[in-house]
Write a structure and sequence with these properties.
Blueprint: H1 38-53, H2 65-72, H3 76-88, E1 92-95, E2 99-102, H4 107-133, H5 139-154, H6 157-174, H7 178-197, H8 203-218, H9 222-235, H10 237-243
Antiparallel strand pairs: 1-2
Length: 253
């Protein structure tokens, strides 16, 4: 490829696309269209998001519009419509005259995500236990656990990260609070990203803890579900810093 690629997002200021939820990430070439289809922008979003998670677009690098457009066989318009979705979910930052730049993880970003997860998921576990006591099905949790087991057995690091995130989303879904679920979905992509970056952590341990959380929710004991959820999330904070090579003094005591 020759020439200088135009950075994505350089012209994505005033006319930003409406935020929409993306489907499961999939690294596939989006079909060419008229450049204004929301589904096309969503497909581009999912593909670029996956590539960012996998490190194909490194942290701190610019997203080159020409390269991505050629790879996905799409025009600039749907690419630029996908940028606000990526920025909304914390995968890129846009800057005047620089365009979109892949977000970078530092100690504060990791801590912030763990803190938000504690604030959201611990309460969701409590509500899920309450719903379970009233007879709500735990099929979403069981299906997510089965998917996690398959990914662990296959040794697929990205699959494990996606399945783990899906499990945590399932806990929130069982809580039956639409607002909580929408909030969870705004951070689920970054959860998957951080899970993948710290994929050196023992997957079997996480799966065992997921089973324990499922059982706590099934018991209908709200305090137990809260306690198990908190311990599970907090248990990974320090190991995540270590897995990413962060200095220990970045971690809160």
């Amino acid at each position: 490829m020759t020439g200088t690629a135009t950075p994505i997002g350089a012209a994505a200021g005033a006319g930003r696309a409406t935020a929409v939820d993306a489907g499961p990430p999939g690294d596939h070439a989006a079909a060419a269209g008229d450049g204004r289809s929301p589904s096309l922008s969503r497909s581009i979003y999912a593909t670029v998001r996956e590539r960012i998670i996998l490190g194909q677009y490194p942290q701190g690098s610019r997203l080159p519009e020409a390269r991505i457009g050629e790879e996905l066989h799409v025009s600039r318009v749907p690419l630029r419509e996908a940028v606000p979705l990526l920025e909304r979910d914390g995968f890129v930052h846009t800057f005047p005259r620089r365009g979109a730049v892949v977000a970078s993880w530092d100690g504060k970003a990791i801590d912030d995500l763990f803190d938000v997860r504690l604030a959201l998921e611990v309460g969701a576990a409590r509500h899920a236990a309450r719903r379970a006591a009233l007879g709500r099905s735990l099929d979403p949790l069981d299906a997510a656990l089965a998917a996690s087991q398959r990914a662990v057995t296959a040794g697929d690091a990205y699959g494990i990260a996606c399945a783990s995130t899906a499990y945590h989303e399932a806990v929130v879904a069982v809580a039956a609070n639409d607002l909580l679920l929408r909030m969870m979905r705004t951070i689920s992509g970054r959860i998957t990203w951080l899970f993948y970056l710290s994929s050196g952590l023992p997957a079997d341990d996480a799966l065992t803890e997921h089973v324990a959380l499922r059982d706590a929710i099934a018991s209908g004991n709200e305090r137990l579900a809260e306690s198990v959820a908190y311990a599970h999330i907090e248990h990974d904070r320090r190991p995540t810093f270590a897995a990413m090579g962060m200095a220990a003094d970045v971690v809160r005591p």
